[in-house]
Amino acid sequence: MNVKKISELFNKELVVINMGLDSFADNLRKEEVKVLPMDWKPPAGGDKRLISLLEKLDA
Amino acid sequence: MKAKIEEANQEAVSRIQRAKPTLIDVSIAGEAIPGMKRNMILHAGPPEPWERMCGPMKGAVIGGMILEGLAKNRQEAEALAASGDILFEPCHHHSSVGPMAGVATWSMPVWVMENRTFGNRAYCTLNEGLGKVLRYGAFSEEVIARLRWMAEDLAPALKKALVRHGPIDMKSMIAQALQMGDEGHNRNRAGTSLFIREIAPDLVMLDESREKIARILAFIHGNDHFFLNLSMPSCKCTVDAAASVEGSSVVTTMARNGTEFGIRVSGLGDRWFTGPAGMVEGLYLPGFSARDAAPDIGDSVITETAGIGGFAMAAAPAIVKFVGGSARDAIRYTQQMYEITVAENDTYRIPTLDFRGTPTGIDLLKVVETGILPAINTGIAHKEPGIGMVGAGLVHPPENCFHDALEVFAEKYGK
Question: Which residues of A touch B415 (CB under 8 A)?
Fold first, then answer.
């Protein structure tokens, strides 16, 4: 059943959600696959000091 | 720890939700505001000595001194301000708020707002209108004459009308204004209209001349921002009830003095965390440009702190004609603010978002984690004293306020 569902999925038009760097999706775009970029940033902009403070609070 | 912070934040936001801001009186600053002194001048934002004040705040201080008879002109006022005989303190240290320069002096009339759930009060001067006005740093004869008329005619009449009417439920009025296209900070056309509708029947019954009453009604009608000085103390007495909840990371004050932007956090008491005030991006009045602008200034960001203003812009798409951007931007600003707040307001609701409650209770931790800064819409003052308003637009706080507050919060409450 799972194989059938997977087959169904790939027989439909594929839309991929891209999380992270926009360049991750470059190859898909070259293949004309629709890509939805997700508005995502690392926590606290990736600032290690701020991340450690948030971790101190279990936030 | 996370659970304790969340519990504390729920308590803080619950106090915001349960607040019942109610207009109970019109008084004068010297009589009503706790700790007010004859030689004291209140100003917007975090503490700011005279020598560091920006142009519009200095202009408003000069005007305030002339109004009080402490000085005859700019030169005398500047000398007195620098002498050390005048006490400068933030409105926020006296249960008060003031738009733009936020200057309040002894004899200025003030709205008295009471939070009927918790009993605390907040105070704010009456709004003078737009353009050449004291709060934007203007202090010409026309500015002083208008302030005198407000103290001698407008405020006493409103006080008597309010006695006839009885206390006015501001929470209901703000909620209604949001249904009518206001957001309570830079769009107050509906709120002003609702206030006139409420008070006019009692105003016209006063033993005053028809000309006097007509001038008062025309003055209020001619100033769409009249309601701002009612929405601000409503928000102030609302969020003050949420201050000093142990363990809470909810932001209970945001305010600017034209030099610095400051925040205070519920679980960190009265301590300010400040950073440089930003430049506002927006629309300018004819003849002015960004070159003329002073940095971000005023206590009016108390509206965003309480969950209206920039946080409720989706309710007020027409505001973009005043502050810039598109109607879609207005909706986007509100939607983004849900990412950094604890709750959705159970009274202030947004028709265009299918009556979703406004994003309420800014969480310091969410601001830092997401990197999303509160969205604020605001007026723009000329950078030099004596000129006044030059535009309006949008601005964000400096992020270091939140980073610095997190350092102290983690020190106090972290593992």
Answer: 56-58
